[in-house]
Design a protein that fits this description.
Layout lengths: L11 H12 L5 H19 L16 H8 L4 H13 L1 H7 L1 H14 L1
């Protein structure tokens, strides 16, 4: 069974290929696009590309959280929750959908 995996900076093309194979199993188009967005943001965070992402804005003195807030309107904790849903709960995500997975993860966070 395919699984979405965090970035491997050593071989980014292979990482993209492995995740593309896993994404073929996702039937819901909206969920697929959300997962792709999380993967894209995950990649540019780990490569540092977000600092040069916009020519008109200087992110050199900003944090990735600042970039997220502007680009996706997400806070860093919200993004980390989405990453957890994608990387650690992919099978459940495909079966039950994003909403139910995020609700469960949020409840688990509150218990900690």
């Amino acid at each position: 069974m395919a699984k979405i995996i965090p970035i491997n900076n050593q071989d980014r093309e292979h990482w993209k290929q492995l995740n593309a194979e896993a994404l073929e199993e996702v039937q819901d188009q909206a969920l697929l696009e959300m997962i792709k967005m999380v993967l894209n943001l995950h990649e540019i965070e780990h490569t540092g590309e977000w600092r040069q992402a916009h020519r008109r804005l200087d992110f050199s003195k900003s944090t990735f959280g600042d970039y997220l807030q502007l680009y996706a309107r997400w806070s860093l904790p919200e993004f980390r929750l989405l990453e957890e849903a994608v990387f650690e709960n992919f099978d459940e995500l495909k079966r039950k959908g994003l909403y139910s997975v995020l609700i469960r993860l949020r409840k688990e966070q509150e218990k900690r």
